[in-house]
Task: structure prediction
Amino acid sequence: MAIKTFRLQVATSAGTDIINITPQVARIASGLGDGALLLFVPGSTAALTTIEYEKGAVSDLKAALERLAPRDMAYAHDSRWGDGNGYAHVRAALLGPSLSVPLADGKLLLGAWQQIVVCDFDNRPRTRDVIVQHLPA
Amino acid sequence: MAIKTFRLQVATSAGTDIINITPQVARIASGLGDGALLLFVPGSTAALTTIEYEKGAVSDLKAALERLAPRDMAYAHDSRWGDGNGYAHVRAALLGPSLSVPLADGKLLLGAWQQIVVCDFDNRPRTRDVIVQHLPA
Amino acid sequence: MAIKTFRLQVATSAGTDIINITPQVARIASGLGDGALLLFVPGSTAALTTIEYEKGAVSDLKAALERLAPRDMAYAHDSRWGDGNGYAHVRAALLGPSLSVPLADGKLLLGAWQQIVVCDFDNRPRTRDVIVQHLPA
Result:
C-alpha cells in the first residue's frame, strides 16, 4: 500500500466562483478500487466543500458568504496590502482547504445530489491546482 | 496495512438535528489499535463536526446557524425546486461533510468535552449513513 | 507503510488567539518524504484552518467570527454552566478540528501565502496539543 498523488487544474473567474470538480475527481477514482481520497487546494483565497451543484443552491451559498464576509466591507488586509481581496481570505479560512471522500469499487461515496466543489474567492481569474491523494484499501 | 471501512446509521428528525455519534464511533475504534479515522456523511444537507455535546452549546450552535442561513429566508434553491430546504444546503456546505480523528490504542484522541456530531439540516426525518474508515498505524 | 503520530504543543492566550504552526509542522514534515499529514486539535473550543498569516487577514478573520458568534451575546451554554465561553464552542464547531495537507519530498504543498493555524477561542490561556499524523507514500 502506498498513497498516490494526482493533480487537477481548474480555471476560475474573478469573484466567488464555485466550480464542480466531481467529474474530474470521479475519473481519477474510477481506476482506484477501494479506499479514500484526500483533497486539498493550495492557496489562501480558495476552499473545498460539497454542495448540490445546481444554480439555486450555489447562488444561495454565495449570498450566505456575502452576508458573512461582504466583498465591499473595509478589511485590514486590504488597508495593509491594497490587494482588495480581504473578503476572499476570510471566506477561505472559514470554509477550509481540505476534504476527504470515501471510495468503493472506484466510485465516490457521495450522496445522490452531492458534488465536490472548489470555491475560488479571489478577485482575479486564477488557475487552481487541486491535489487528490488516494489512500488504498 | 489496509484501510477498513465501517458504516453507521443514524435516524434524524426534521429541522436542524445535531446527534452525538461518539459512542458508536468509539465502539468501532475500540478494536482498532492506533492510527486515524476518516469520517464522511453522504448527502448535501448534512455535515460533521465536533462540539461539547450538552444542551446549551448545541442550541447555541443552532442559533448561530439560524443567523447565518435563516430557515425562513427566500432561497433560490427553493424557488427552483420547491424543496423548502435551501437553508439546509447552505448550512451543510459551510460546515462540510468530512472529519478526521486520531486514534491511540483503540481510543479516540478527542478532548475531554469534545464529541463527534452529525448535523442533519434537512426539513424531513432521514436515516443517515456515516462512513468511518480506519487508517492503521 | 504505517501511520506515524507526532504531537505539537502550542501556548495560547485568552480570547480568539490565532497561531501560525506552519514552522513546527514543516519541521516534522522535513524528515518524511511524500504522502499526507492529518492534523487534529483535541478540545471543543479550538479549531484548525489555513490563512495568509499576516496581521490584517488575521484580524479580519477575528472580526468575521465576532459577527458570526459575538463574544458578549447571551449563550445557553453560559447560562447552564457559567463558563463564559459559549462563543468559543460555537466558533470551534463552525471551523472544525481537523485538516489534511499533502506532502512532497518532505515539503508541505501549501500555497505561497498559506499558513496552517490553530485558533484557540477559549476565554483563558491554554496549552494546546496538535496531533500530526503522517500517511506515507
Remarks:
- The longest strand of chain B covers residues 126-136.
- The first helix of chain B runs from residue 22 to 29.
- Chain B has a mean pLDDT of 96.
- The domain at 4-136 of chain B is CATH 2.60.120.460 (Jelly Rolls).
